[in-house]
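Table 4 source record.
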Amino acid sequence: EVQDDSPRSLAEAEAETIEITFADLGLSDRMLASLVAAGYKRPTPIQAQAVPLALNGRDLMGLAQTGTGKTAAFTIPIIERLMDGPKRTRALILTPTRELCQQVEEAIRKYGQGTGLEVVSVYGGVGYDTQLKAPREGVDAIAATPGRVIDHLEKQNVVFDDIEVLVLDEADRMLDMGFAPQINKLVAAIHPYRQTLLFSATLDGDVDRLV
C-alpha cells in the first residue's frame, strides 16, 4: 500500500522525495527520454512510491487525491511492461467517467511516444461502431468505463484472455456510481495471475471490501 491522502502526509512525502528523479525509479532510457520530452523533471510523491513497485510486478493500492499524478503512476509502468511485447490486449484500465478514460488514453500516447503501443478508450454515450474498429484490429491497452466494456465483452468485441495488468482508477468514485457489480464481473472474467493496481482517494468500507 502506498499512501498520499492528506495535506500533511503529502507535504512530508514531498520533502522526502524532493531529490528523487525519474532516473532513480528504475525506468528505461526510452521512457526517461519520453518524460523529458513531455517536460517532466521529478516524480510526485505517489509516483515515486508506486512506480518502482509496479515495475517489479507488485500488486498495489495507492491512496491519493486528484491532481497528485496518479495517472502517470500507473501508465508509466504499464508502458514499460508492454513496449516491445506482442500485439494483443494486455492491459485494462477501468475508470468511472469518459473524461478519465480519455485522460488515460492521452497519457499512454504521450509517455509512450515512439514505442508503437496502441491504446483505445471505451465509454458510454457514443455509438458502438466508433469504438469497434481498434479493439478488433488489436490494441495493447484499453481504458474503459465498466458498463460499456462489459457490453463489448458480452458482444465478443474484445477478448481479455491475455490481460496482464488490471487497473482500477478512482475506485471510490466507481463504487459511488454503482459500478460494483460490473467491476466484480470484470475481475472474475480476467485471469487471476495478473498484476492489479488500485487507486482511490479514500479507503472506506466499500473500497476495503473491493480490495
